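Long-time lurker, first post. I've been practising inverse folding by hand and with some scripts of my own, and I keep getting stuck on stretches where the structure tokens seem ambiguous. Below is the full token string for one chain I'm working on. Before anyone asks, I'm not after the true native sequence, just a reasonable design that respects the backbone. If someone could post their per-position residues I'd love to compare against what I wrote down in my notebook.
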């Protein structure tokens, strides 16, 4: 009885890790948050717009297992109704012991993934925008390397009068061009739906993102209390599957100079569950400060009892800085 690392059957799962501290703080998955900060277009190319022209965004993340990620993104307008951006992200997983099939240690290696991305978006109407993102993916693990191409297609509807945002994204289309060995590794293809909205003068915007929509059943293993009297149990009920498809977020929008966001991801909580319960698992928090042409954002989460993740974003509007 096993579940392939709690449904981690695909390779290239680093594609699902946001480069935005704001999105990470809202549960890690959000495709409908309309903002003028470049990094928030990370998971939906249709959220990129000419209002982000001249922005450059830097991101750093300390992830689980001693992993460290970093990246840079730049955006510019393309005519009156379009925009483009270019990005590079590096995923380093620390040093690992290299062994032979018989278990003998022959040294160490530092696995890594690198993603080179290009994004284009276009205003279809005053309220509808579409976008496409293409990434070239290089992976180097010890003596093995691989190359893949990934594409995201997104569309967003935004009504500024009611602050209603609705999005649809087909994420991680594509496949490997060069394999590690004989086996073919799949990209984590996904269909996602997103809703974000505030209500009247209430200064909080709410978001719900539905993801992993290519399959309903997302079972997980409940480990019990760790004693020999409790065998691991596979949980596959309607309720658990429903909530493992949903990510919830809320962010304070009372000021243009700062924000606070809170998210809950039930899939993260159940994937990382151990018999030593962690009340913070699945929750994440973000905060940010905007000062003239600069902004800084941070996010924190503790998906597992032995791992705290931290993300830092720095954003600068070069157009405003020059002018």
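-- Answer (accepted) --
I ran through it position by position. Result:
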């Amino acid at each position: 009885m096993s579940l392939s690392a709690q449904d981690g059957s695909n390779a290239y799962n680093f594609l699902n890790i946001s480069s935005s501290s704001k999105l990470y703080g809202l549960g890690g998955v959000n495709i409908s948050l309309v903002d003028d900060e470049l990094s928030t277009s990370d998971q939906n190319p249709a959220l990129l717009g000419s209002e982000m022209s001249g922005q450059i965004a830097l991101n750093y993340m300390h992830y689980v297992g001693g992993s460290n990620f970093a990246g840079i993104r730049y955006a510019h307008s393309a005519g009156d109704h379009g925009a483009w951006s270019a990005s590079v992200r590096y995923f380093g997983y620390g040093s690992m012991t290299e062994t032979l099939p018989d278990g003998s240690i022959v040294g160490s290696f530092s696995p890594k993934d690198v993603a080179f991305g290009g994004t284009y978006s276009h205003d279809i109407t005053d309220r509808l925008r579409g976008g496409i993102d293409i990434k070239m993916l290089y992976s180097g693990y010890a003596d093995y390397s691989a190359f893949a191409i990934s594409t995201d297609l997104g569309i967003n509807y935004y009504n500024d009068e009611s602050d209603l945002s609705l999005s649809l994204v087909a994420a991680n289309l594509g496949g490997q061009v060069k394999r590690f060995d004989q086996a073919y590794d799949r990209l984590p293809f996904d269909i996602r739906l997103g809703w974000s909205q505030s209500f009247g003068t209430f200064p909080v915007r709410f978001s719900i993102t539905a993801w992993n929509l290519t399959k309903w059943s997302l079972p997980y293993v409940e480990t019990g209390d760790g004693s020999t009297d409790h065998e691991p149990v596979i949980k596959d009920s309607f309720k658990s599957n429903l909530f493992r498809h949903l990510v919830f977020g809320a962010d304070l929008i009372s000021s243009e100079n700062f924000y606070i966001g809170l998210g809950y991801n039930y899939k993260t909580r159940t994937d990382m569950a151990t018999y030593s319960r962690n009340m913070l698992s699945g929750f994440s928090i973000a905060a940010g400060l905007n000062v003239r042409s600069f902004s800084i954002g941070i996010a924190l989460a503790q998906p597992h009892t032995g791992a705290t993740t931290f993300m830092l974003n720095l954003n600068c509007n070069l157009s405003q800085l020059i002018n």
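A couple of notes from the structure itself: Helices lie at 4-7, 21-25, 238-244, 266-271, 318-322. Confidence is low (pLDDT under 50) at residues 1-9. Happy to go over any region you disagree with.
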